[in-house]
Structures are given as structure tokens and as C-alpha cells.
Design a protein that fits this description.
With 406 residues, the chain is an alpha/beta fold. It contains 14 helices and 12 strands. It has helices at residues 6-9, 15-28, 47-57, 72-86, 101-113, 129-136, 152-162, 185-198, 255-268, 274-285, 289-311, 338-349, 375-391, 399-405, and strands at residues 34-35, 96-99, 119-124, 140-145, 169-173, 201-205, 231-236, 249-253, 324-328, 351-352, 354-355, 366-370.
Length: 406
């Protein structure tokens, strides 16, 4: 019994694992690592949401199994959010389903709709669940290049033309993780028309809908009336309300896809813990000043990071949205690659970032920087990076890295 499991065999080695292991070893040695690696919000969940959780969890009847599709009150709150934010009327019963974060929803819908031999179009670079949810389901993934100064719709057309079979679905993600790229309603109008013509489903990941700066609020694909014929959209409360560990999100849109997701979830889970769902409804229905505060916090951090890193000798483009900066690695390090640069930065500057290659082959040459450290820590990171860039030789043997690795 030494054969490798087939679905596991199809998953490549996790690129971030090597950096994460180095980070853990460095911390075990007592080193102070400034961690921009994982997009893990560091601010507390707003008090009124926590208080609703505590109030609800004291009611013993809420300790029983919940509803895998989401309690009715939460689905109604989600529908109200879409009406308020996007001007879209959704049926809470047939067009909305609660998920354990957007990641679980994407993965389970991939399992519900994909079969071996199906072709799925996925952005590259990309959040890993976008392609690998379908890989785990047995489908083949055709990567579509995305990023700064790339016409993604044109890349989609080329991918469909080059595909050996008609693709079954495409994944969209705007605001994009990791590139922070945005699109407008005109883009969605064109992509919906194209997908309908080619008979391709659309899975849109809108997890960063509320994290935007100095621009108009990002639109929803469901604002295009025809989108509900072919599209489902995923979003999450993780970043909007600083609730990542609560694992609560939702999918909305095409009734057939929502029904398929609901059916497969009925076999796999009983839904999120009921008090979490009640608190999530309180988040959506309650005061929204906390969302502005969270957004402003990321904006302030973005501005400090861009300014201080530039002074350190590393020009980082200022993102218009998300909690990430997508940064070309300094010119002297381009031949080394993003993984080696990230490892050296961790070992010698005590700053952790995510190597771009971990998000796909077209992410090479970049690193993703998460805005999850406060402004003082960001400035400290900039000072460390300034010393690192001034003294480190990209081609030299890295004794500091070897020391951390031992």
C-alpha cells in the first residue's frame, strides 16, 4: 500500500510551506519576524458582532445542528446587503446559500459541477483554491494570464480558442488576490456576453468587495441582468468585518448552481455554528461604520508601506483595493526569483512575504505583501529592508538563511 493517492498526486508541492517553515524556525530562535505573508486580518472583530455571538451562544437551543444552507435570517441579511450595496434583488431561498467562508463554497461547487475531463479557465496568478478546487474535483485547469497591464478579457478569448474542448466554467476574481487588480461594470457586461455565447458558467470571487481605496466601490457581476443565467458569486465576511476565523461567507446568483452547491453541502456539513450565523446577520444588518474603520486602517497601512518602502529603495505599486500589495521584486533580484528572494528577505531582513510563484507561474517576479502589520512595524520592516538591499548580494551564499534552516 505505497501508491500515492491520485487526487493528492495532482496537487503540486505547496510553495509557501518552505517560507512558513523558515518563519517558524526563526521565531523558535527568538527572532522578531515582521510577517506580511498570510492575509490574516490582525484587528479584532467589532464589539457588537462579538456581543451578539456571546448572547446567542448562551441559548442552549443554538447548540444543536444548524442548517447547511444557512439560517433564514442570515440569508435574508445577505439579500439585504446585495440590495443595499449593488441594487440587486435576490431570492434568499433559491439564490443565496451560506458557506463556511468563500473558500469552502468555491471548493464544494467545484466538486458539485466538475467531472474528469472538464476544462476550467482559472486566472494565473491566483488564490490557490481557484484552480485547485477544480483539480481536486478531477477537472483540467487551463490557466489564463492576469495582472497589471493585461487585458484579461482578451486572454480569456485566447484561452477558449486554444482549448481542446469547450470549457465548462471560468473563475473571475476582482478585486484580485494577489494582484489587487480591479474591473468595472463594462468588463462584466462583456465577459457575461462572451460566456453566454460560449455557454460557460462563471464563478466570481468577490471576497474583497469592501476593501477599496480612492476608487469607486467595486461592482458585482450580478449587476449585469443576464449574469444570473450563468453566474454565481462568492463573498465573505472575513475581511469586511475582520472575521477570518469565524469562517462565514455566502454564494449568490444562478439558481441551478446554488441548488447544486446546496445539495453537495447537505452531504458534507450541517452549516456554520448557529451563533456564528446569528452574529453574521448582526454584522450585515447592524451599523456599518466598522467597515469604514477597517477600510481606512488598510488604506493608512498601504500609504505608509508604499512611502517607506520607496525610501528604502523598493518601489511598490500602490494597490487600489484588497489588503495586499503586489510588488515586483527589486531589479537586482529578478534573476534569483521570487521564492529565493522571499527566503533571503526572511533570513536577513526578518521580513516575511509571499513569493509570487506560489500563486502560479505568471506570478514569478513578484511577491505579495499583506497589510497585516501596524504602521510602526511597517516602518521597521522598511528600515530592515533598506539595510538588506544595500548590503545583500543576490548571488552570494546565504549564511543567514542556512542558519535559520538548521
Amino acid at each position: 500500500m505505497t501508491d500515492e493517492f491520485e487526487r493528492i498526486r495532482r496537487l503540486p508541492p505547496y510553495v509557501f510551506a518552505e517560507v512558513n517553515e523558515m518563519k517558524q524556525r526563526a521565531r523558535a530562535q527568538g527572532r522578531d519576524i515582521i510577517d506580511f505573508g498570510m492575509g490574516n486580518p490582525d484587528s479584532p472583530t467589532p464589539d457588537h458582532i462579538v456581543e451578539k455571538l456571546v448572547e446567542t451562544v448562551r441559548k442552549p437551543r443554538t447548540h444543536r445542528y444548524s442548517n447547511s444552507r444557512g439560517i433564514p435570517g442570515l440569508r435574508r441579511a445577505m439579500a439585504a446587503y446585495y440590495q443595499r450595496r449593488f441594487g440587486i434583488d435576490l431570492d434568499p431561498q433559491s439564490e443565496i446559500i451560506t458557506t463556511l467562508g468563500s473558500k469552502e463554497g468555491l471548493a464544494n461547487l467545484a466538486s458539485a459541477m466538475a467531472a474528469p475531463g472538464d476544462i476550467i479557465l482559472s486566472p494565473n496568478p491566483s488564490y490557490p483554491i481557484h484552480p485547485y478546487g477544480f483539480v481536486i474535483a478531477g477537472a483540467a485547469v487551463q490557466h489564463v494570464r492576469c495582472g497589471p497591464n493585461i487585458d484579461y478579457l482578451d486572454e480569456l478569448r485566447r484561452a477558449v480558442a486554444a482549448s481542446p474542448r469547450k470549457p465548462k466554467a471560468m473563475v473571475l476574481n476582482f478585486p484580485n488576490n494577489p494582484t489587487a487588480q480591479l474591473v468595472d461594470l463594462a468588463f462584466y457586461e462583456k465577459v457575461v456576453a462572451f460566456a453566454k455565447q460560449e455557454q460557460i458558467y462563471i464563478l466570481s470571487d468577490l471576497a474583497y468587495a469592501e476593501i477599496y481605496f480612492d476608487v469607486e466601490p467595486p461592482p458585482s457581476i450580478l449587476q449585469i441582468p443576464e449574469a444570473r443565467d450563468i453566474a454565481v458569486e462568492f463573498t465573505s465576511l472575513s475581511k469586511t468585518y475582520s472575521m477570518p476565523g469565524w469562517r462565514i461567507g455566502f454564494a449568490a446568483g444562478n439558481k441551478r448552481l446554488i441548488q447544486a452547491l446546496g445539495r453537495i453541502k447537505s452531504y458534507l456539513d450541517y452549516g456554520a455554528f448557529t451563533p456564528i450565523q446569528v452574529a453574521a446577520a448582526a454584522a450585515l444588518n447592524g451599523p456599518q461604520e466598522c467597515v469604514d474603520e477597517i477600510r481606512n486602517r488598510y488604506k493608512e497601512r498601504r500609504d505608509v508601506l508604499v512611502e517607506s518602502f520607496a525610501a528604502a529603495g523598493w518601489d511598490v505599486p500602490s494597490p487600489d483595493a484588497t489588503m495586499f500589495a503586489w510588488a515586483p521584486i527589486p531589479a537586482a533580484w529578478q534573476t534569483v526569483g521570487s521564492l529565493e528572494f522571499a527566503k533571503r528577505l526572511l533570513a536577513e531582513a526578518e521580513v516575511a512575504v509571499s513569493p509570487g510563484i506560489g500563486f502560479g507561474e505568471y506570478g514569478e517576479g513578484y511577491v505579495r505583501i499583506a497589510l497585516v502589520e501596524n504602521r510602526q512595524r511597517i516602518r521597521q520592516a522598511a528600515r530592515n529592508i533598506k539595510s538588506f538591499l544595500a548590503s545583500a548580494d543576490p548571488l552570494a551564499a546565504d549564511e543567514a538563511q542556512q542558519a535559520v534552516s538548521r
